[in-house]
């Protein structure tokens, strides 16, 4: 068992330092790059916090939809194949809901400020 | 060092020029660079832009029209009275600057967030969509006989290209599969109108001033094909920068864009435009994945490229909003 602090706590502490102490001191193109870097650290902390729960729910939905078991990536490959060859489509019960939930879970990690995501959060 | 070479080059075709000053690189990957500089002249300095592939980088990558074609298209647009920089000089081997061209520098803004939010563009925003409709109609109306050799594209070819590229990533994305399937099923077939297509008509490639559009830039993806592609591409949500209820670049409506287009004597097929908007949304998503691949495999191991990979999910939610909107059951 690894000791505390957790990876999330460590990354957050670094990101906050860069955001609050370093960013105001940097100008020009490096300021832009620093912002991208801070965004990357924030993304990692969101993924660490959310990934386990959303992956488990996604796998459960896929098993139900496909009637098979397997690793998450294999289940996704199987779904892709069925969509590509027309075995499932938007008329298939559960497919639209599954794609929406999976995509919302990705955006919650990748870009929670994306305008389409914020609109859809209030539009279930 | 580039100032010396540019100075010699400019002196060979610009009467009275005594050199150049203030050369600065604006952007550049390994194979293509853009520089800004001033031509020094007794009657006042003249702003100029160099767009070039440095010596040793001759061939342009897969889809690119090539710098010679870009120069020809820009000059054609300029001569037709469209907002486009004048091409001042096409580089020759003796210039020792690589291949490319030098054009007039046009002052204005290309950064979407400023164009959409800054007070100085407040008067431009309400007129832009209609203006851009007229401009893109002018581009589509350029005489086919005068065009340089360009790749010919169709919806069918574009779907196949996107699918091939997506499959090469070997990473399952059910929403992209759904979009590919949707596009294949609704492929409208060959377009009745086949014209010059700019190929990247959107924020970033448009110089905007307080008075509206001043120049169309970056003809790298120009090709011959369905003109509705350009109208669909500028409506892709990724270019709305948060203003998601204004489909044209976050500043205007489709109706305004279409009205401007038809004022210039051309016809809009709204269904085809919508088809190309879906295609464009998927295309940007696949381009984001491609940048992630180059981050992994290529020499450009930058955070920016890595993070763009995480923007492909933005196009997934936009594709779902287009193909499977919620709350309409």
Give a brief description.
With 124 residues, chain A is mainly α.
Task: List the SSEs and their pairings.
The complex is a heterodimer of chains A (124) and B (329).
Chain A: H1 7-22, H2 29-66, H3 72-84, H4 95-110, H5 115-121
Chain B: H1 2-11, E1 19-28, E2 33-40, E3 46-53, H2 67-79, E4 87-90, E5 99-104, H3 112-117, H4 125-140, H5 155-169, H6 174-186, E6 195-197, E7 206-209, E8 212-216, E9 223-225, H7 228-233, H8 254-263, H9 270-297, H10 303-309, H11 312-323
- What is the CA-atom radius of gyration of chain B, in angstroms? 20 Å
**Helix fraction of chain A by DSSP (H/I, runs of at least 4):** over 70%
- Report the uncertain regions of chain B: none
Taking pLDDT < 50 over at least 5 consecutive residues as the criterion, the unreliable ranges of chain A are none
Protein architecture, described:
The complex is a heterodimer of chains A (124) and B (329). The mean pLDDT of chain A is 96. Chain A contains five helices and no strands. Chain A has helices at 7-22, 29-66, 72-84, 95-110, 115-121. Helix content of chain B is 41%, strand content 16%. Chain B has eleven helices and nine strands. The longest helix of chain B has 28 residues, at 270-297. In chain B, 43% of the residues are buried. The mean pLDDT of chain B is 93. The interface between A and B is medium-sized, with 34 and 30 residues.
């Amino acid at each position: 068992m690894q000791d505390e602090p957790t990876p999330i706590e460590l990354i957050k502490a670094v990101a906050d330092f860069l955001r609050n102490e370093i960013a105001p001191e940097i100008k020009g193109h490096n300021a832009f790059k620093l912002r991208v870097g801070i965004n990357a650290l924030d993304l990692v902390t969101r993924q660490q916090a959310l990934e386990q729960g959303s992956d488990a729910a996604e796998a459960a939905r896929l098993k139900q939809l496909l009637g098979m078991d397997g690793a998450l990536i294999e289940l996704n490959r199987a779904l892709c194949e069925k969509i590509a060859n027309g075995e499932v489509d938007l008329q298939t019960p559960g497919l639209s809901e599954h794609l929406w939930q999976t995509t919302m879970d990705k955006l919650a990690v990748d870009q929670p400020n994306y305008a389409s995501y914020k609109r859809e959060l209030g539009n279930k | 060092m580039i100032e010396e070479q540019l100075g010699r080059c400019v002196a060979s075709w610009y009467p009275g020029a005594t050199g150049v000053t203030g050369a600065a690189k604006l952007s550049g990957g390994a194979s293509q660079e853009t520089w800004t500089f001033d031509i020094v002249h007794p009657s006042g300095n003249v702003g100029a832009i160099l767009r070039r592939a440095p010596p040793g980088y001759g061939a342009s990558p897969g889809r690119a029209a090539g710098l010679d074609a870009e120069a020809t298209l820009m000059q054609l647009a300029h001569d037709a009275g469209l907002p486009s920089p004048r091409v001042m000089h096409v580089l020759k081997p003796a210039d020792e600057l690589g291949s490319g061209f030098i054009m007039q520098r046009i002052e204005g803004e290309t950064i979407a967030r400023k164009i959409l939010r800054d007070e100085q563009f407040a008067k431009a925003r309400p007129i832009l969509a209609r203006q851009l409709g007229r401009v893109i109609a002018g581009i589509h109306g350029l005489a086919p006989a005068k065009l340089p050799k360009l790749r010919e594209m169709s919806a069918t070819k574009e779907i196949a290209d996107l699918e091939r590229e997506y499959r090469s990533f070997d990473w399952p994305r059910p929403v992209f599969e759904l979009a590919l399937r949707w596009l294949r099923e609704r492929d409208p077939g060959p377009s009745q109108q086949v014209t010059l297509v700019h190929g990247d008509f959107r924020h970033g490639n448009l110089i905007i001033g307080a008075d509206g559009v001043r120049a169309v830039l970056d003809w790298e993806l120009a090709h011959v094909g369905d003109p509705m592609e350009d109208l669909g591409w500028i409506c892709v949500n990724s270019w709305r920068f948060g203003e998601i209820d204004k489909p044209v670049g976050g500043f205007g409506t489709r109706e305004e864009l279409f009205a401007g287009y038809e004022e210039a004597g051309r016809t809009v097929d709204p269904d085809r435009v919508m088809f190309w908007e879906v295609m464009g949304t998927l295309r940007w998503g696949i381009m984001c994945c491609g940048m992630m691949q180059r981050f992994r495999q290529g020499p450009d191991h930058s955070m920016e490229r890595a993070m763009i990979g995480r923007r492909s999910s933005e196009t997934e939610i936009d594709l779902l909003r287009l193909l499977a909107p919620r709350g309409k059951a």
